[in-house]
Give the backbone structure.
Amino acid sequence: MGKPDLQDYIVATYLVHGRGDFHKKAQSIAVGLTVGSWTDLPAEKQEQMKKHLGHVVSVEELGTDDQGSVKALLKIAYPVCNFTPDIPALLTCTFGKLSMDGAIKLVGLDLPLSFTGHFPGPKYGIEGVRQRLGVHGRPLLMSIFKSCIGYDTDTLAEHFYQQALGGVDLVKDDEIFFADTEAPFEKRIEACLRAAERAAAETGKKVLYAANLTGPVTEIADKAKRAVNAGANALLLNVLAYGYDVLHRLAADPEIRVPIMAHPALAGALYPSPQYGISAPLVLGKLMRLAGADLVLYPSPYGSVAMERAETLAIANELRREQAGWKRSFPVPSAGIHPGLVPRLYEDLGNDQVINAGGGIHGHPDGSAAGGRAFVAAIEAAVNGKSLTEAATSSPELAKALALWGGK
Ligand code: 1AE
């Protein structure tokens, strides 16, 4: 059978390790994940099933690993007509059962317009979030609420005020904030937005608040709409715990008129193995944007939950690459970020990123507002090509942060 025209196929790339016949393996995937069996089918049935049959695009051996296993890249093309236009179908039909079949990792998904055209992508993206804040020409700064659980609404609103006073652009709930009876969701949103206005009267700056969207999946869209009606200006979702399709449906809903931030919780169960799982640029880059995340958190190469620099750049590339009809998503390198790391983050990603910190803001010796100011000074220095040491001469907050955490 001749090579198919790939514009109506989804092409999955797998990294496999083993000692067997990779061509046979590739052929069994192409058939097994599509029509089930081929050569045993009578000619008439083959004709009927032809449009659903998968094809091997290529098999490339890459050499031998330390354990003597041969590595290979297999590319398999799956007909778009086998998929419903959603991420559960995409993942199940390209890697569902296969993910449990030995040393195999999904490392690429080339998606044709006949599939991606059904996905609206991010509703706001980088430009939409910038417009909402009125901030252009520099990285944004986000602070993470730390210690949310067990605090009442007034206390959290005061914490919000301190963070906003420091000059951050966004504040997000901690992703573990589910049990919020002391600070119920809508009341907390209203209180934090009042705190944002109080801070804005002093700083002149707008701040977005991403409240953590929690609860049963059957109620989550209604809850998001209630949040919007209560004045919410952003939302946070633990996408992998809920499933990409939940994000997709929230992002596609015209009544949910706020940017959605994707938290990477659970991603470590998927990407770190060199032999198994799904690659980080797919899990946290391509699929998050496909599902409609406006901002995506992921581990930075320099902080406490380190990820390979090349992988982090590949994630950012997936989030920001030009793609017809889709807005670009903000990369948010996170975890253990402090002001001393700002020059490296800036060198890697430039202006279109969100610099995000929890401990690096709240752990400042003079408190959260001072922590924010230290970051503001570090970002301003990076944008203007100044060293942190030079910037610290006019920012006592930055000087104290550098003394505590290091950085030049
Ligand atoms: C990669 C996710 C980072 C995150 O969610 C988080 O809470 C970071 O906190 P810090 O900045 O490490 O204190």
